Amino acid sequence: MNLKHKTIKFTTFVYRFFTLNIMKKEYSLEELLHKAASYCSISEHCISEVEDKLTAWGISAENKQKIIDRLEAEDFINEKRFCSYFVKDKFRFNKWGKIKISYALKQKGLDNEQINSALSTIDDGEYEEMLATILKTKLLGLKYEYEFEKQGKLFRFAQSRGFESNVIDRVLRTI
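Above: the chain's sequence. Below: its structure in token form.
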């Protein structure tokens, strides 16, 4: 190892030591609550996302629960509201189907009842129209020799976006 390499390793060590250990500011419970409220007011978050953020800040389990309870009491965290906004955003902007949205919400630890309630807000006509638009766009760049090959590729693509098989069949017959 040459001197330059040793110097870089030492500098990296010193930087990490000071930034991770000594320079960490200790926050009071009220300051942490204010910081978490600010995080929740920027955009909708579910309990698991807030827990992850609090864990990243190095907060104890006891304080974490106190903060989450207070945020829920003051309506900074509302999982029903989060669920409905998440469904709207993922459907409109990411063009995800109900299956993919449902799995994403389950990964966040949300209730099946809340998930199904939020998914029911998607209009079926708009849902099929969105899928038809996506498939028509995909068809423009698709290379295939036979009709069944085209249908298979479009079907798999729609499934990867989280759309149900019966909806995909119905839409594929129309395009």
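Residues 8 and 14 are 10 Å apart (CA to CA).
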